[in-house]
Amino acid sequence: MSSAESLFDHGSFRDPSARVLRHDGQVVRYVNADALRDWETLAATRFFSQYTHDGRIVATERVTAPPIPVATPWVAALHHATIPVISYPYEWCFSMLKDAALLQLDLQLAALDEGMTMKDATPFNVQWIGTRSTFIDTTSFTRAVEGEPWAGYRQFCEMFLNPLLLQAYKNVAFHAWLRGSLDGIESGQLSQLMSLRDRLRPGVFAHVYLLAKLQSRYAATSRDVRHDLRAAGFGAALVRANVKRMRRLVERLTWVQARSTWSDYAESSSYDREDRARKARFVQTAASERRRALVWDLGCNTGEYSRAVRGHADYIVAVDADHLAVERLYRVLKDEGNNTILPLVGDLTNPTPAIGWRNRERQTLENRGSPDLILALALVHHLAISHNVPIPDLVDWFASFGSEVVVEFVAPGDAMVQQLLRNREPVDFGYTQERFEACLSTRFQIVARETLHAGTRTIYHVRPRRAG
Questions:
Q1: pLDDT of res. 430
Q2: SS3 string of 137-174?
Q3: Which of 102, 297, 376, 381 could be bridged to 407 by S-S, CB 3.0 to 4.6 A?
Q4: In which residue ranges of the chain is pLDDT below 50?
């Protein structure tokens, strides 16, 4: 497939009514005749205008001259505003998934009020511009049919509600499960994890236990569920009432976790006030050499250095493996209305792979946007010691992105390194500053370096060496 016809990575990949393509940085959705009629109905609604204006639905317009000529079965093309960096539900913190669920439910309610409904309810149709959730699949809306239930209910439960219940009630992170099952957590599976006491908690009995029983019952019959619901008088008013109840349930869900391994790192680290200020100035100076289109802050923790560079960057992706640290960062950024820093949960030693149909539906982070500056602060010692990544491999990994890097080396004598080495076998990791600098020098030009006052931490600003 040529670059002019690369598939956009979100939930409509397998939508038979539409196909989404990229072309020269543009996102174009090609639709068939049925989808075009739904689009024209959607475009005339009040809620679409309102939600597009405030950014909760991606800005969309029909184009008369699409960049790639429309061919059968497509009859029209829609142009979408671009999202800076695509992300996936298994990279979101609890509150991000919760806010995406609330957006989905708000859209369903708004659509019902104007004679429309939503065909599906997948979080892959929600994206983020910083901390603002934005719905990107306009073909999800269709004209409502009286007596029909909400077609997206089961999918909403499996992809939004069940992961939230798992985290809120059992304190089990949903990320690995969602990454391993792109269709979400089946109610039957979650039901087996819930105790009798759990069934008394809000939402579990109706949306997990009973739904699992109903699915099992109807799976063994040839009965038409929709016909049964219409015969029982399942109308628009009942659908609306059920969605409102679901919204109240989701809004009340919370994840209570007071502490994690690194969520309090900023307070417990060995930096004094002077060193923290010097480190921030070094990072700002490196970033300010030119305007940065995209910055990655790897091992971001509280996002302190993401904030330090935001005046010099169009967009920043802040990644940390500590879910609670990212949860706290998201809440703070959301309260500020920050739309330039995207916080994500991610393990750098087990990163998001290319998965889905033909490994094209969901992409690796680097395939969703190449950074021109990487921040790797207080990170190298964790990867090298805790995860046994050799120093040469770390440097090669940094070099593979072709971007500038601000990287910190924490010497073996530092208190944090000693903490990581505690209770470890006395193995020679080859973890020395001399070796680190030698490896850096083979792949990068060292532009600047600064050793902090404590003497055990050195920051480097490096630039890739040009071939030849």
A1: 84
A2: CHHHEEECCCCCCCCCHHHHHHHHHHHHHHHHHHCCCC
A3: 376
A4: 1-12, 262
What is the rounded distance in angstroms from the CA atom of residue 371 to the CA atom of residue 24? 18
Quote the pLDDT of residue 8. 45
* Contact between residue 154 and residue 211 where contact means Cβ atoms under 8 Å apart: yes
Q: What is the per-residue pLDDT for 18?
A: 82
What is the 3-class SS of the chain, one letter each residue? CCHHHEECCCHHHHCCCEEEEEECCEEEEEECHHHHHHHHHHHCCHHHHHHHHCCCECCEEEECCCCCCCCCCCCEEEEECCCCCCCCHHHCCHHHHHHHHHHHHHHHHHHHHCCEEECCCCHHHEEEECCEEEECCHHHEEECCCCCCCCCHHHHHHHHHHHHHHHHHHCCCCHHHHHHCCCCCCHHHHHHHCCCCHHHCCCHHHHHHHHHHHHHHHHCCCCCHHHHHHHCCCCHHHHHHHHHHHHHHHHHCCCCCCCCCCCCHHHHCCCCHHHHHHHHHHHHHHHCCCCEEEEEEECCCCCHHHHHHHHHEEEEEEEECCHHHHHHHHHHHHHHCCCCEEEEECCCCCCCCCECHHHCCECCCHHHCCCCEEEECCCHHHHHHHCCCCHHHHHHHHHHCCCEEEEEEECCCCHHHHHHHCCCCCCCCCCCHHHHHHHHHHHEEEEEEEECCCCCEEEEEEEECCCC
* Residues 376 and 407: beta-carbon distance below 8 Å: yes
Cα–Cα dist 318/302, whole Å: 9
Strands, sheet with 292-298, edge to edge from the N-terminal-most edge strand: 341-345, 313-320, 292-298, 373-376, 404-410, 457-464, 444-451
Phi and psi torsions of 129, nearest 5°: -115, 95
Question: Beta 292-298 vs 373-376: how paired, if at all?
Answer: parallel
Q: Are residues 138 and 42 in contact, defined by beta-carbon separation less than 8 angstroms?
A: yes
C-alpha distance from residue 409 to each of 9, 111, 237 (Å): 36, 53, 61
Residue 226 one-letter amino acid = R
pLDDT in tens, 265-278: 555 555 678 889 99
CB 218 within 8 Å of CB 131: no
The predicted model scores a pTM of 0.92
